[in-house]
Amino acid sequence: MDGYRYEEENVACLFSSDEGTGSVIPTQAQSLVEGSGAVMVSELKPVPDVDYLQELLAIQQQGPRAIGFFGTRNMGFMHQELIEILSYALVITKNHIFTSGASGTNAAVIRGALRAEKPELLTVILPQSLKKQPPESQELLSKVKTVIEKPYNDHLPLLEASRLCNRDIISHVQQVICFAFHDSKLLMETCQEAKSLRKIVTLFYLD
């Protein structure tokens, strides 16, 4: 999982050693293996958000869920492969995946879900009508059993239609998984909105 080392480094700043005091803050792996009791409470620093790994583990701890996938179109092949594997794993464990129809993240999610051969556990919600999608997306979407179009949004700019589409997806799910850059404004808004609705949000930064 070297491709996600950047995220581990980002999160690691919350669990690193305190050079000024010499206190040692547990890593994510140590917390899971040794338990939080392995370190004095006085040595722990407050963490501003739920641990990403715990969020992912919560999926299986509480049984199958409806999970919304969001993410950037601008993504390398390796990241797409990892997302495809994650989507596949979530579907074969009976989680219902909701996503949209764009290239990049969405396409990788769809490919992974299709590999799981459980078509009833994949729902694709488009921001506009199918005809507004690029040809390569239309070809992939032709393999999806449940595609929800929104032709009444065809007159809107894609950004606004996508914002409405993301809200719709959030309303159907219990957990959100997002792959974004720090300056991905719409995706950051989507994650914040999901958090305000008390959804579990797992956000992976690609930068």
From TrEMBL:
Stated name of the protein: Uncharacterized protein
UniProt record, GO biological process: methylation
Species for this entry: Corchorus capsularis
Family annotation (SUPFAM superfamilies): MCP/YpsA-like
Keyword list, A-Z: Methyltransferase, S-adenosyl-L-methionine, Transferase
Molecular function GO labels: methyltransferase activity
Superkingdom classification of source: Eukaryota
PANTHER family according to UniProt: CYSTEINE SULFINATE DESULFINASE_CYSTEINE DESULFURASE AND RELATED ENZYMES (PTHR32183:SF6), PTHR32183
